[in-house]
Amino acid sequence: MSIVKIFSDSTSDLPQGWKDTYDIGIVPLYVVFEDATYKDGVDITPEEVYRRVAANGALPKTAAPSPADFMAAFEPVISSGGDIVYISLSSSLSSTYQNALLAAGEFPEGRVQVVDSETLCGGIALLVMKAARAAAKGQSAPQIASMLKECRSRVETEFVVDTLDYLYMGGRCSGMQNFIGSLLKIRPVLRLIDGAIVPVGRIRGKKEKAVEQMLQHALAHAGEMDKELLIVAHTLAEEDAKYLEKVLREQTEVSEIAVIRAGCVIGSHCGPATVGLMYMR
Questions:
Q1: How far is CA 178 from the centre of its chain?
Q2: pLDDT of residue 202
Q3: pLDDT band at residue 189, thresholds of 50, 70 and 90?
Q4: Among 27, 142, 148, 251, which residue's Cβ finds the most Cβ atoms within 10 Å?
Q5: Burial level of 185, CB count in 10 A (0-12/13-18/19+)?
């Protein structure tokens, strides 16, 4: 039986320890400023992205890895006799999935299984860890891909954005919405539904109110949670993340609660001080 190597892209924001333990391959997306292009998580940090946005008043563009990028990452594994399962950022948000499919088509049929996560950040990480643990138990690439396609509809991803500025600069809300939202201190609560980001709440006042609403929504479904892993993700919102981790440890039966930092691509769309919860039903 062939060894199966799990791949994802940089928007999965996997902790280094998980990547090392399970030998998970990462194909980075790109962060593009006017003067230079950087590989997410390789050439630039989220802090540098936020600093440049604050100085210039403009967001970077983000770009998917090319089919050639994927081929370069996959080729050594295929040449050595291994098989691959690649788990992508939601195809509703990026061409990453399509480019991975194009690359997979350049290898013998079935050797590279490409799965659309239909989510982002920690939601992808949940699926990646399911896949990595299945591969460690000897499951085949087609078996793992089939399992992931069944699991992905059960991933819950919700997050609170601290400011509308990044959504405005990215064209996701109007200037008037940004002005009124800033004036009234409105904190958007966003959720991944069918692979797309959908606003599900606009909480006026302190950010803590929005974080609490997100937490209570998750706790209302605590009995349905997969007990293996829950993820708290954040962009420079460590205190919020620690609070969520503490309460979730106390009030759920999930065996592992991991706090992860979102990288440059995720951060460039939602901005600093964003915090989210990702779990599987």
A1: 25
A2: 78
A3: confident
A4: 27
A5: middle
- How much is the mean pLDDT over the chain? 90
53-56: Cβ within 8 A, 24+ apart: 53/166, 53/169, 53/268
Report the distance separating Cα 263 and Cα 14, nearest Å.
9
Residue bearing tokens 């992860």: 260
pTM of the model: 0.92
**DSSP assignment string, 184-225:** HTEEEEEEEETTEEEEEEEEES-HHHHHHHHHHHHHTTGGGS
Q: Is 100 exposed, middle or buried (0-12, 13-18, 19+ CB in 10 A)?
A: buried
Residue 148: pLDDT over 80: yes
80: which residues sit within 8 A by CB, 6+ positions away?
none
- Please provide the size of the chain in residues: 281
Mean pLDDT confidence for 14-36: 95
Residue 54 and residue 66 in contact, taking contact as beta carbons nearer than 8 Å: no
